[in-house]
């Protein structure tokens, strides 16, 4: 039943299969690729559907702090509730992985609608570190 509900769709990134046809994915893989596609698309990026996507890209230059993490969690929740009706979100948690390198991990806890099967997905989000926190290369003779 859940497999019929999820359906099938084009693989992302777009590619061909062994027969030369457009590669398709189905089941769990379809949901994972759909969530990745939603989060990786900035609103305004698609000409025929400019509102599609997730506004986390507006935060690429924001400071890596708790306020930004909360805003990222909010934007992910809003985007997935709007664009992925096949899942029920349980929680969105943003963890600081490598703050100095600008990497945050977005953990999405969800279940497929109509099932009690909990799932999770971790989506890496890269921010541009500020100049004050970025390490400068060592000059000759410095360590």
Helix content: 25-40%
Radius of gyration: 18 Å
How many structural domains can be distinguished in the coordinates? Answer: 1
Give the N-terminus to C-terminus distance in angstroms.
Answer: 62 Å
> What is the CATH topology descriptor?
Nuclear Transport Factor 2, Chain: A
CATH class categorisation: Alpha Beta
Please tally the helical runs, counting DSSP H or I stretches of 4 or more residues. 3
Name the beta content range: 25-35%
What series of H and E elements makes up the topology? Answer: HEEHHEEE
- Structural class category: alpha+beta
Number of strands: 5
What spatial form do the alpha-carbon principal axes imply? globular
The biggest sheet, with number of strands, parallel, antiparallel or mixed sense and barrel status, is: 3 strands, antiparallel
| Main β-sheet, spatial strand arrangement | 3-4-5
Low-confidence stretches: none
Which key terms come to mind for this protein?
3 helices; 143 residues; globular; 3-stranded antiparallel sheet; two-stranded antiparallel ribbon; alpha+beta; Nuclear Transport Factor 2, Chain: A
